[in-house]
């Protein structure tokens, strides 16, 4: 199938609504040059990443693909596995977990569970996410997989599915271990997945404290108390890894994620994360351009039960661009003009590309918004004859 058989140019109108409308196929009028976007700020970190949640667009990075020890950022993957188990019904929040001696003896940060006692999964999840309890992490891993080693294999399987190609997990806690590594890029991928796939559990990451067994511990992510728009995610620290922090927040309809690894102190990791997020929100903005499942155009269908079908996008299309450059966005729509029934909503029938100054900033396949089955014998034969002259 040839998808570039017809190209239509769009220009932006109704900018306040973020809508693109079909216009004449002409180049937009050149605009006056705007001030350049400054380079990302220098921060205290061995590696860092700043990205926009919905698109995954990277706004700033340094050594983002360097393999580093993750410390308790590991617990993001531990939680991700548990979220899948909860969503599939394999475990439930009210299930009771018997605390093993290994879990009880686990060193480092703890929620202070007791050996032989039974603890609800939702308490263990909060103990792991809010209090960064290593004991809770091991108890959850053993409950789900029988052993922490088997659970680590599950973590690696999920990492592979997410495309975290430079990560490898050996345990559920982040305690130092040979070949227990990840990258800022991979952690950013994981954070995006948690926020997108499991919004029902994401609220735990903004919880400022948790009390268990009469002991109240505060969330170590101090940005939750500094900035009211920050709502996650996770801290980490070992001597080898340094101080780490994955943070996320939303302003004006745009959510950013920052990953800071290998900072020199708890204050420094928070300052670095705040600086990165501030840079992103000051110098970038997100524009929603096309809605999901909304007709953009229609196309001729040959040999179908009907001769036309509406085309749209399977998911919303937005663009993350430097601030103040909304009027520089243009878009092109490539449409296949040789669409033959049967047509399904899973077929790619063209593509919408959004550009700024000739550079593609967002794109998404065009798909039929409904299935079109084959037409009757006579209509198919008539269309077959017409196609000879197309």
Describe the protein's architecture and organization:
With 390 residues, the protein is of the alpha+beta class. The chain has two domains: 6-32 and 288-387, Sandwich (Peptidoglycan synthesis regulatory factor (PBP3), Domain 2), CATH 2.60.410.10; 47-263, DD-peptidase/beta-lactamase superfamily (Beta-lactamase). It is 27% helix and 30% strand. The protein has ten helices and 19 strands. It has helices at residues 74-88, 101-105, 121-129, 134-145, 148-162, 184-197, 199-202, 223-226, 266-283, 377-387, and strands at 6-13, 19-22, 47-52, 58-62, 96-98, 118-120, 209-212, 215-218, 230-238, 242-251, 254-263, 284-290, 297-302, 308-312, 317-322, 329-335, 339-340, 350-356, 359-368. Mean pLDDT is 89; it is low at 1-5 and 11-28.
Write the layout of secondary structure elements.
Elements: E1 6-13, E2 19-22, E3 47-52, E4 58-62, H1 74-88, E5 96-98, H2 101-105, E6 118-120, H3 121-129, H4 134-145, H5 148-162, H6 184-197, H7 199-202, E7 209-212, E8 215-218, H8 223-226, E9 230-238, E10 242-251, E11 254-263, H9 266-283, E12 284-290, E13 297-302, E14 308-312, E15 317-322, E16 329-335, E17 339-340, E18 350-356, E19 359-368, H10 377-387
Parallel strand pairs: 13-17
Antiparallel strand pairs: 1-2, 1-16, 3-4, 3-11, 5-6, 7-8, 9-10, 10-11, 12-15, 13-14, 14-19, 16-18, 18-19
Helix pairs in contact: 1-4, 1-5, 3-4, 4-5
Q: Brief overview, please?
A:
The chain has 390 residues and is of the alpha+beta class.
